[in-house]
Amino acid sequence: MRIEDEIKQPTFRDEYQKAIINLVYTTGWLQLRQATAFKTFGLTLPQFNILRILRGQHPLPATVALLIDRMLDKTSNASRIVDRLEEKKLVTRTVCPANRRAVDIRITPAGLELLKTIEDSGLMEKNGTQFLTPDEARQLNVLLDKIRTEDGDGTTLHQPSCE
Amino acid sequence: MRIEDEIKQPTFRDEYQKAIINLVYTTGWLQLRQATAFKTFGLTLPQFNILRILRGQHPLPATVALLIDRMLDKTSNASRIVDRLEEKKLVTRTVCPANRRAVDIRITPAGLELLKTIEDSGLMEKNGTQFLTPDEARQLNVLLDKIRTEDGDGTTLHQPSCE
DNA sequence: CGACATTAAATGTATGTACATAAATTTGCA
DNA sequence: TGCAAATTTATGTACATACATTTAATGTCG
């Protein structure tokens, strides 16, 4: 559906204004879809992403610092997301023997099993981009990269992360 | 900068996976920039959006229901955002005389002045899309609309709203 | 009229982000 | 050696989203 109809705003100042609204709207749309899907498995999107990072390390542990680095969401709070995964017995937390400041975080067998269940469900493939041709997907990548031209202000930038 | 470099992931499964990550990343990038800018004026993005809706109604009042409808963020909580604007004396809240269930919300002169200050600052124009040509902006709109093809599940969808 | 559903807004709970600060440990250098 | 700085994680606060429930007012229909 066209964005004009989607948000019931018949006109925009120009294609630029329309594009920025369309971007934010479409990403919100995607995120809500994904979040709703993950909820049926008792996970939030950030929790799922942390679990995937931990599986990538498995059987080695990860530290909170590593999670933050991989999430690329530099300012956010991995500690509390790990809290929730620990409550659900999907990860374990033990003080790192080599450096008692650090904490070793590991995915449990239950965590691995949950990831497999989710991935086997085919959830991950229904993300909207399947309606693009390969060429259109390439075009989209070019345009998005252009929008992020001139990252000039040096502030730490956000990466909400997702499959 | 290319998304590969931005998130330091050298390869993706395909252009589709890259596109979805690029979309989420780019919108997060945009939102963080905008949120940071608005913070210098003591506002969050949702607060700014509510203020703009109220200005659109001015001098008529709006109800919470109208705000929710205009925000297009159907499930979210306009009530508490109005709380914060009221604390800052940017809006007023009075029980609607015609229907004592409803609440009339109005932007104050201070609120109108703040909006003008923000808009005069030229903040709104620096949103990334200025790096696209008009034709590219049009292309982007077409691609995003395609991604939202098949809104089939009937769930209420999200619209984080912004300029 | 009066029980009951509907509507409008507010409130409660869980989760997450952003940012500042604290607490514990380790490092490094005078 | 000893103390300050750096590192690593956790905690606190403000704000927002998502969703369920509550409260008050209004509508409806027997």
From TrEMBL, chains A, B:
InterPro entries associated with the record: HTH_MarR-typ (IPR000835), MarR/SlyA-like (IPR039422), WH-like_DNA-bd_sf (IPR036388), WH_DNA-bd_sf (IPR036390)
Start and end residues of each HTH marR-type domain: 13-149
Record protein name field: MarR family transcriptional regulator
Gene source species: Hymenobacter mellowenesis
